[in-house]
Amino acid sequence: MTTWLKERSELGVSAVLAVLGVVVLVDALRIHTDFAQRGPVGPKAVPVVVGVGLLVVAVLLARDVLRGGRGEAEGGEDVDLTAPADWRTVLLLCGAFLANAALIGVVGFPISGAVLFWGAAYALGSRHFVRDPLIAAGMAVVTFLVFNNLLGVPLPGGPLMGVL
Fold it and tell me: How does DSSP assign 28-87, residue by residue?
């Protein structure tokens, strides 16, 4: 029995996904909403879709494993596991994220988002000092407009609030 379980250890992942799906569904169904407050879709829709998706993936994975499917051990990875971690990149990415968090309340999302996007591009190796800030600014403005105007998620606009 122990050998059978060791050969099918992916069933553990399936079980975790199933438990997580049930937890998400139970929590989603406990959300109290009034139709007048929420409109036709409501806050339950996305968690229910995610919970059902987790359960479907858990069942499909369990079925695949029980039919003899096996994951490929590090076969699809092109990562050299003996190489040391690139802490410079990690720290630069953390710095860009922290700068965004510190600046968003002061200068608004379009500017802090541009700093985040440009900082991430720089941390990941891009050295186009004219193109990258322009693309980052464009991405930040588009992201702001999509969230603020289309999705109705208010983001701080900062000094650009009257312009956008």
Answer: HHT----HHHHTTT-TTHHHHHHHHHHHHHHHHHHHHHHTT----SSSS----TTSPP-H
